[in-house]
Amino acid sequence: MQKKQDILTNNKRRRVLSFSDLFFLSFGGQAPFISLLTFGTVMIAEVGTEGAFAMLLATFVVFFNGLVIYFLSQRFKRGGGYYIYALYALTSRLGFNTGWNYLLYALSYGGTLLAGGAFVLYTVLSQFIPYLSLPQWFFALIVSSLASGLVLAGVRTSAKYAMVMSLIEMLTIILLSILFLYDSGWNFYNPVPTTISPVLLEAVVFGLGIPTGYGSIAPLGEEAESRDIGKAAIAVLLFGGLLATFFFYSLGALGFTGNLVEYLLSRFGIISLLFIGFIALNDGTLGGVSYILADSRTLEAMAKDKFFPSFLSMVKGNKPIYAEIFTALIFILALTSLAYFVGLYNEFVILGALAGLNNLFIHLSANVSLVRISSKRKGKHIHQIIVGIVASIISLSVFFYSLPTFEKYIVYIFFGWIILGFLYAEGIEITKASSNE
């Protein structure tokens, strides 16, 4: 493993991303429109017109995890995100386990967005061209290959694509929200309900999936200034959460409690099919780009520390080209194969569940890392300790609350991946010990 001092003062970093680049990459990692259609439909089904209030609470909860990343990103200059935080704040083994689970998290979350985009695109084209008999795995192949191609074209190209397409999505969501308010006759109301729904907490849990996305920029420490990563993480979760709150507020003004996709189809007719198809392709691609980048940078950092073959850390053309190619191939093969065997919808459900569990795991690791490293100077960093403890309590509560709701095979895969990582790490230790004898 590289010496700690050399790592923290690495002078060969590839600083090519600005604050705005990070913001739009992170916003793309939210896949806002698909998130609103999927998580949002469930939230509305749970609490109806209280959706705006539930979304506001969800944003507040996510804000604590975002603060943890904000504080940790200021302390570490090296790329690798959650893996690096645990590696130096906790132990080498916990660092590996965090990085190991982040690899599955990024594949699952990015894969969920790509699969969701491919599924909506497949549905739209089936409506327009009913005689089109292309298999579902073909759409997974197209969307994942497009995202991979953008990543391999370079991080600057990916950032420019994210900026243009994110601006289009922001404008679309804002215009739709204003239109819904107009349809309601400008029915402004107090979003805080007088009586709380008994399933409000469940709706909040679903809402947690909407303003995320900052997890995709945490590993980009080699390409960006640490302070910009932290600032972008906070800015994008607040902007995304408040934008979603405004969207749900406008639906509440209409008294809407149904399916968002069906409503858009009924409101805009055939035009909405084209629009939803375009947004789905854009959203899936943006999410895929963000998490392929994040996964490749985590893989690069772990390869530097000899957890994976060293060629994966090699840099050519100012980027870890082999880590990017390897990660892109894994995304394409995993998504295409899964779509072939279970279909796009089931793929979306499986990957979404795995993303949720692994998200809680890596954030719990980050929260504990902040508490551990801040406790060394308690007087100066008491506020960081409090944030870490509160975020840990939230993550644990959501984990134990949601775990029984998952299918058993999802839980088996999640814990099986952790056990596989443990065995892999043990194998590395045994190999090192044997070579030193």
UniProtKB/TrEMBL annotation:
Q: Which Gene3D superfamilies match?
A: Amino acid/polyamine transporter I
Q: Where does the UniProt annotation locate this protein?
A: Cell membrane
Task: Indicate yes or no for the key word Membrane.
Answer: yes
Positions in coiled-coil regions? none
Answer yes or no on keyword Transferase.
no
Report the transmembrane regions from the record: 21-45, 51-72, 102-125, 137-155, 162-182, 194-220, 232-256, 268-294, 321-342, 348-370, 382-403, 409-425
The protein's name in its UniProt record: APC family permease
Organism of provenance: Sulfurisphaera javensis
Taxonomy, top ranks, is:
Archaea, Thermoproteota, Thermoprotei, Sulfolobales, Sulfolobaceae
